């Protein structure tokens, strides 16, 4: 293997902003900040999410950010600060780096992810169970 996940994470963390969970809690509710949940929908269903967060499964990120993509989401074209999170901060670190490389300027990630958020006393919203 030429480059493993540890090297990729180290490279990402060297160029992205990591927001500590205490600071992230203060940013929650700010109209200029969008919390972006990168976890799989099953993780969100099982664990809950940060209230008001925008769900963007990690596998769709590049397609949803690019305004030329047929899958582009308008939220990523808004003049906002995007605060990515996943379960522990690994996927969100890699995603933040990718988003920066794509030209998304105001992007950071929550250090320690949703686990740190929840353990730090952050609000958690439990989605309604799926029907069917």
From TrEMBL:
Name this polypeptide is given: Rhodanese-like domain-containing protein
Organism of derivation: Neoroseomonas oryzicola
Gene Ontology terms, MF aspect: thiosulfate-cyanide sulfurtransferase activity
SMART domains with a match to the protein in the record: RHOD
SUPFAM superfamilies: Rhodanese/Cell cycle control phosphatase
Pfam families: Rhodanese
InterPro entries in UniProt: Rhodanese-like_dom, Rhodanese-like_dom_sf
PANTHER family named in the record: THIOSULFATE SULFURTRANSFERASE PSPE, THIOSULFATE SULFURTRANSFERASE RDL2, MITOCHONDRIAL-RELATED
Rhodanese domain residues: 29-126
CDD domains linked: Polysulfide_ST
């Amino acid at each position: 293997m030429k480059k493993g996940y540890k090297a990729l994470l180290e490279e990402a963390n060297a160029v992205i902003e990591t927001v500590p969970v205490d600071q992230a809690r203060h940013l929650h509710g700010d109209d200029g900040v969008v919390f972006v949940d990168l976890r799989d929908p099953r993780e969100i269903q099982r664990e809950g999410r940060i209230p008001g967060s925008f769900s963007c499964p990690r596998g769709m990120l590049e397609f949803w950010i690019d305004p030329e993509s047929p899958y582009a989401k308008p939220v990523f074209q808004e003049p906002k600060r995007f605060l990515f999170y996943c379960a522990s901060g690994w996927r969100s670190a890699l995603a933040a780096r990718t988003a920066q490389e794509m030209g998304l300027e105001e992007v950071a990630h929550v250090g320690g992810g949703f686990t740190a958020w929840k353990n730090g006393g952050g609000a958690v919203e439990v989605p309604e169970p799926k029907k069917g």
